[in-house]
Design brief:
homodimer; 313 residues; nine-stranded parallel β-sheet; 12 helices; lyase (chains A, B); metal-binding (chains A, B); HMGL (chains A, B); metal ion binding (chains A, B); Aldolase_TIM (chains A, B)
C-alpha cells in the first residue's frame, strides 16, 4: 500500500527525542483471551518482541491462577524468557504474587491500583484505601529487595459505574503509590474515554502536587479512537513512557477485533514520523503481530499491522 | 459501556472554540461501495446527518456515471435533499459536471486535484499541470455564478507510487487552486501516512507562502491510525475545518471494516471532550451511522459507533 520512505520524518517542536515503549501485549493483551494460548507461543511472542527492539516487555502476572486462567502458566513462562536482554516486568497482586515473582528472579514488578471506589470494589473486592493498604507492604518489600516497582492506576479518566472521575481523587491515589515507593506510575484510561485536554489537565495537576512527569507513563485504550491523540498531547507535556500492546491485543470483550489497548505499531508509526527514537524495527514488529494474529486465529486490530501486512502479501 | 458525563469536558489551551465538520460520508464514504445503495437510502442518510446537527454535508458527485457508478444517481438524489437547511457541496470533475450541478441549483461545488503527478495520471490520466488547467475554467465559471468552491488536494502527505511528497509541490498546487479562486482547500492524506509534525510543517509552509489557515481544511485517513492525532495537531495550528465521514465510511478496498476516512463520531468525541463546539448531537449521529451500517450489512469501523451502539443494545 505504501511506497518506501513513509512516513516522512518531520519532527514537531518541543517533543522528546526518545520514548520508551512499555509493551503490554503479552500480559494485558493476552489476559482476556478465552482460549488458552500455549506457553511456548507466549515465550516466542516475547522473544520476537525483544528481537523487534522493544526494551520493556511486561511478561505475565503472578495473580492467583483462578482469577486469570490465561496467565496461570506464569511460573513456566517466566524462566523461558528471563535471560532476554530486556526489562521484563510482571504484575503482582499481593505478597503471595510477589513471593512467586521474586523466587523466579523477577527484577521489576507492577501493582494494579484503581482510581475509583467502584473499580476497586469490582476488581479487588476492597475499598480504595483497603486496596492501597494491601499494596503498601508489597511495594515496600519489593523496594527492599532492590526491585523496581510500577504502579498502574486504572480508571484515571472515567469509570463505567461512576462516569467522570474527579482529578483530585486520581492525584490522591498517585501520591499514595509514590509515597509507598513506586518508581513509576502508569495512568490508565481503562475505558478509553479520555480526550487530550483531560490528559494535559491531569498531568499538570500531578506536577503541581509533587508528582513529576519523569515518573509518569500513559496507558490509553482506543475504545473511542482517542488513544493516539491523547498520546500526542502527553508527549507535548513531556511524557516519555508510553504503554502499548503489539497488534492492539487486548480487545474489548464485546466486539471481535475491536481494539482495547493502543496498538504499538500505530504508536511507532507516529513516533518515527515525528523523528522520535524508539529503538523499534517497525517491520519486525508488524511481522510479530501478524504472526501472533495467526496464532490467535483472527486479524490484528492494529491499523498499521493491517496496512503493512497486506502490502507484504 | 460508559456512564453519563463522559467524555469529561476539559478544554486545552489555544484551541479553536468551534470546528466546522465537513461531512463526506455520503460522497467519499459511499463512492467505493460495490453494491448500489438505493437513492432513497442516500437521501435518508443525508437527512439524518442534517438532523444530527451536521451543517456541511457533501452530497454526491457529478462525475461521469461510468467512472463512479455508485454516484450515477446524482441527478435523482440532489433534488431530494436540496431543501435541507444545510450546505450541500457536490463534487464536479469538469465543466460538464459543473453544468449538471448548476442546473440543479447547487450552490457549493468541489474540484478534486492531486498533489502528485502519479495520482493525477492514475486518477485523471493527465499531468498535474494539465489537470489544473482543466479545473481553471470550472472554478472561474462557478465563481462567476456566485458558487462557493472547495479544492481537494489529494496525496498531500504521501503517494502510493512516489512515496514521500515534497512539501513545496503541495504548496504549488494549493497556491494554483487559490489563484484560480477556490474559497477553501482540503488537504488530503489519501493513504493515511501523515504524522503530526508533517501536518504542522505543511500548514506553516502554506501560511508562509500566502495561504492562510482560515481557508484550509484537513482530510485525514486512518489507514495507520493517525487521523485523530493529526487532527489534534491541526487544531493546535488553528485549523477549524475538519473533514470526516459518518461511521468511518469509505473503507480501504482490501479489508472489511478497515477504516479509510476519519470517523465523524471519533472526531466529535474528541472535540466535545475538548469543549469545542460542533453543533452535532453525538447520540443522533451514532444512531445514524448504526442505521447506515445496517443498510450496508456490515459493522461500522468507527470505534465510537461500536462502543456506543453496543451500549444501546
Amino acid at each position: 500500500m505504501t511506497a518506501e520512505g513513509l512516513p516522512m520524518t518531520v519532527p514537531a517542536q518541543d517533543l522528546p527525542d526518545r520514548v520508551r515503549i512499555h509493551e503490554v501485549g503479552a500480559r494485558d493483551g493476552l489476559q482476556n483471551e478465552k482460549s488458552a494460548v500455549p506457553t511456548e507461543v507466549k515465550a516466542e511472542f516475547i522473544r520476537r518482541l525483544a528481537d523487534a527492539g522493544l526494551t520493556t516487555i511486561e511478561a505475565t502476572s503472578f495473580v492467583h491462577p483462578a482469577w486469570v486462567p490465561q496467565l496461570a502458566d506464569a511460573e513456566d513462562l517466566f524462566p523461558q524468557v528471563a535471560d532476554l536482554p530486556v526489562a521484563l516486568p510482571v504484575l503482582v497482586p499481593n505478597q503471595r504474587g510477589l513471593d512467586r515473582a521474586l523466587a523466579l528472579g523477577a527484577r521489576r514488578v507492577a501493582v494494579f491500583a484503581s482510581a475509583t471506589e467502584s473499580f476497586a470494589k469490582a476488581n479487588l473486592n476492597r475499598t480504595l484505601d483497603e486496596s492501597l493498604a494491601v499494596f503498601e507492604p508489597v511495594v515496600r518489600r519489593a523496594k527492599d529487595e532492590g526491585v523496581q516497582v510500577r504502579g498502574y492506576v486504572s480508571m484515571c479518566f472515567g469509570d463505567p459505574w461512576e462516569g467522570a472521575v474527579p482529578l483530585h481523587q486520581v492525584v490522591r491515589v498517585c501520591r499514595a503509590l509514590r509515597d509507598m515507593g513506586c518508581d513509576e506510575l502508569s495512568l490508565g484510561d481503562t475505558i478509553g474515554v479520555a480526550t487530550p485536554g483531560h490528559v494535559l489537565e491531569l498531568l499538570s495537576l500531578l506536577n503541581e502536587e509533587g508528582v513529576p512527569t519523569n515518573v509518569l507513563g500513559v496507558h490509553f485504550h482506543d475504545t473511542y479512537g482517542q488513544a493516539l491523540a491523547n498520546t500526542y498531547a502527553a508527549l507535548e507535556h513531556g511524557v516519555t513512557t508510553v504503554d502499548a500492546s503489539a497488534g492492539g491485543l487486548g480487545g474489548c470483550p464485546y466486539a471481535k477485533s475491536a481494539t482495547g489497548n493502543l496498538a504499538t505499531e500505530d504508536l511507532v508509526w507516529m513516533l518515527h514520523g515525528l523523528g522520535i527514537d524508539t529503538g523499534v524495527d517497525l517491520g519486525r514488529l508488524v511481522a510479530t503481530s501478524a504472526w501472533m494474529a495467526d496464532q490467535l486465529g483472527r486479524p490484528s486490530p492494529s491499523r498499521t499491522v493491517r496496512a503493512l501486512s497486506h502490502k507484504d502479501q
